[in-house]
Design a protein that fits this description.
This is N-acetyltransferase domain-containing protein. InterPro entries: Acyl_CoA_acyltransferase, GNAT_dom, Ribosomal_N-acetyltransferase. This protein has 173 residues and is an alpha+beta fold. The protein has a single domain, classed as Aminopeptidase, CATH 3.40.630.30. A seven-stranded mixed beta sheet has the order 1-2-3-4-5-7-6, sandwiched between helices. Strand 3 and strand 4 form a beta hairpin. The radius of gyration is 15 Å and the shape is globular. The two termini are 16 Å apart. The site of coenzyme A has 20 residues, from helix 2, strand 4, helix 4 and helix 5.
Length: 173
């Protein structure tokens, strides 16, 4: 497994991965197979996207957006993620997310994002995503009513978070 920033030459593979995974993603996140060019344009200090890639085949395992990045005294970002078939449910997404977290918590002067806290906001009945948050060591912080506009309505979310003090980096796992 490896993680890297998305590139213009990922557009076709990304589109195919999202299309074949539409059923599995669609209940929870918008299906946007043609969204990679716009996502590439939006990359900046407030948004960093990582693709999780199967090194053996180059296949796209999943995508993780680190969004709403605020530095200063907060150093916080919110994670949003999707896994893609045929890799979904194999444990590879979880392995890739550990690498994303390493990158988020690595200091900026060492090439990371230099964050202190990460959030995952999940709809209460999204069991697979809640399992992912817990597997990654996030703690349940609370409940945020009507937090995000998804699928035609404002959806309640459970809020999970992890701060660097509770993070076990790669060399200690
Ligand atoms: C949420 C989501 C990203 C989770 O991804 P995933 O594909 O389930 O991730 P993984 O394959 O790493 O999941 C682990 C599963 O593999 C199994 N597994 C096998 N080997 C494993 C290993 N070495 N390590 C971890 N898990 C392993 C686990 O038991 C687990 O199965 P279970 O959930 O039935 O217990 C995915 O379900 C998804 O894209 N959902 C739709 C979009 C979405 O909800 N996004 C999040 C919105 S908040």
């Amino acid at each position: 497994m490896t993680i890297r920033a998305p590139r213009p030459d990922d557009v076709v593979a990304y589109s195919e991965a999202v299309r074949r995974s539409a059923e599995h993603i669609g209940r929870w996140n918008p299906i946007e197979p043609d969204a990679l060019p716009e996502l590439l344009e939006r990359q900046g200090p407030g948004l960093r996207t990582f693709l999780i890639v199967d090194e053996a085949t180059g296949g796209l395992v999943g995508k993780c957006n680190v969004a709403n990045i605020v530095m200063g005294r907060f150093c916080n970002g919110a994670l949003g993620y999707d896994s893609y078939l045929p890799f979904a449910g194999t444990g590879m997404m979880s392995e890739g997310m550990l690498l994303v977290l390493d990158q988020c918590f690595t200091p900026a002067h060492q090439g990371g994002l230099g964050l202190h806290r990460l959030e995952i906001n999940v709809q209460p009945d999204n069991e697979r995503s809640i399992a992912m948050a817990r597997r990654l060591g996030f703690r349940h912080e609370g409940f945020t009513p009507r937090m995000l506009f998804l699928d035609g309505g404002w959806r309640d979310h459970e809020r999970f978070a992890l701060t660097i003090e509770d993070w076990k980096p790669a060399e200690r796992r």
